[in-house]
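Long-time lurker. I teach an intro course on protein structure, and each term I like to show students one example going from raw sequence to a predicted 3D structure in token notation. This year I'd like something fresh instead of my usual example. Would anyone be willing to generate the tokens for the chain below so I can use it in lecture? Attribution to the forum is fine with me.
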Amino acid sequence: MTTTIRTLIVFLITAVYAVCYPAIKAGLPFAPPFLFGGLRALIGGLSLLLLAAVLGKPVLLPRRSWWRVISLGLITTTFVFSAMFHAIGVKSAGIASVLGNTQPLIVMILAALFLSERITRSKVLALVLGLGGIALFSYSAWKSAGASDISGGAFALAASGGASVGILIVKRMGMRLDLLTITGWQLTIGGLPLLALYAVAEREAPVIWNGTFVGLLLFLSLVGTALVTFLWYWIVAREDVGRLSMFLFLVPVFGMGVSALVFREKVSILEGIGSALIVAGVGAAALAYERKGISLHFDKKRQIRE
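-- Reply from a regular --
Happy to contribute to a lecture. Here you go:
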């Protein structure tokens, strides 16, 4: 598969991620966070396992691989979903998409520590621009400094950290196992504790089953979870994690735009400047990688001629 197609897939992933935040916000009035997140994960996971069975792929994993998949499920599904849904419940969807996607900052640090990936000048530039953009977004979000702002920010940052750790686990696992099966079990295993938490902490909360909620749940489960998670793991297993993490900076920009259109949330001047900084950071990183690719291409030609 060409680099262009892979890049388009990453853009598709970021766009869907951005739509997921306002979709979660729209669905929370119909169901409490643990139930909503648990159903989203369970439906998405079971659909992938069913697809694996239909395609003739192994549904069960090797015995020694279960502990990694269980860890992946508890971190990236149970922990991340619970933090994400609670963050969006107490903050605006646009702001939650910003704080919940500081992953590029965390991923590049973890990748340097545990995957021996270099932090190049282009990455540093992208980090500075991205941090600047996030700081402007955060200032706008916390200027009133309410209690819900503090708790919502903590939930969103926790979700970002958990998702970053999950990326490293997937990268470590590589291509040794079928990613369709891994993703299916990760979502299924991670969704069960969320449903248990609902039974303990939210069983008195009302649940409204109507066409709107079912539609949002199916979109989040099948497109925003099953499809996107599988594609993301497929890309992560094949590409440089630092390069991929740069694209995640675009999620809050897309998310802010969707929230402004759907929920009529106002975009301040600082948030607009923050978006510009984030786009500039992603552009700088992408340009650096493109130049690096061209350089490697010419080096290979030179070696062949010699």
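Some talking points for your students: The first helix runs from residue 3 to 27. The CA atoms of residues 175 and 237 lie 7 Å apart.
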